[in-house]
Amino acid sequence: KGILPDDAGLMADDFSFWPKWDPNSKYDTGNSSYVEPDVFFRFANIDVIIEAKYSDNRGQYREEWEREFKAYLNEFETDKKKVVLLAVGGNSTFEPEPDLIVGKHKCSIVKYSWVSLLNSVLSYEKDALSSIEDEMQSSIKRVIRNVEFGFQNIGIHKCNKKVELQGLRNLYTLGKVFQLAIARDTELYTLSYYKEDVNSYHYGYQFEVKPKDGRRKSIWLSIALWINEQEVISIEARNVYNWAERLCKQIEEGKRFSSKYADKPEEENNCYYFNAKDKFYQEFNEAETFDAQVELVARLIDDVCMYYLK
Length: 310
Hints:
Strand content: 15-25%
Strand order of the largest sheet: 1-2-3-4-6-5
Largest sheet: 6 strands, mixed
Distance between the termini: 42 Å
Number of strands: 12
Number of domains: 3
């Protein structure tokens, strides 16, 4: 917000894939032959450098952005245009990045995941197309279909089909599972999204459990997949009034529904972690539909929540 202009202006004809820029005519990038961003767009009101990574999990680093900005200045400094670098995929976090500064020049960094880009496309398809006149819809929808096929080619699918366990490594599919598992309003509490936690080895979906009776405070839970191991889904419970500790003891003693699916909890920094065990994955694989897989995750979450509310 506040970085990209409301109107980029018309796109110039000289957009390019993998341009080869001067590495050291004025600003030394450290490269000997050339610097090569992935895509470069020139609009009337802004220039856009894109550095894209195949994976959503890792690959971006600041030193590469700095080389690309210096090489951009070697080519276009005299144009005196605003420039921004879009880091697409490969971001270990989504914390704001300080601007790149070279002399008196500044380049802002905007980080995106492939998942968030697909969500934007699907949101536009759902909300914006309804206001477009019929004769325009077919051509725009064909463009959107092509974009969605492009995402499928890199393993990011929008379909709510049953997924194999390895499909959980697809952050878009995993995000949908987690979103749908908490998108429910029960008689005793509501669940609401708080934030996602993404890095090179872990994808977490944090949410708030808010009791409806007002007698208890809200609690925070996180459901996550540890990406660099075998598929390990875990639930993190913050230990409000020692309730998580008491729940852990019941799971260990086999007294809770969770004990069927949750391994022996571990405690760290006043939080408790419940790792799903083989029984959970067996039933996840045997579920006949995507909805049934979501329901399995939802039941595990509900069991944790209900213990706090009773």
